[in-house]
# Entry
Amino acid sequence: MVPDTAPASETRVDHEVMVAVDSDQLIIADVSRDGAWLKMPTAEAATMEDWR
# Structure
């Protein structure tokens, strides 16, 4: 995956982000952009309590 190097002034504000769990993998994707996703083991993902 190649990082997005666009300046903040050129980014879109109409993103739609979705999260899914597939087996033991957490997948986060911006479905409004091609290739904008990440995947990590669920054991390494933060819990909801950690985000608060």
Remarks:
- The longest strand covers residues 17-22.
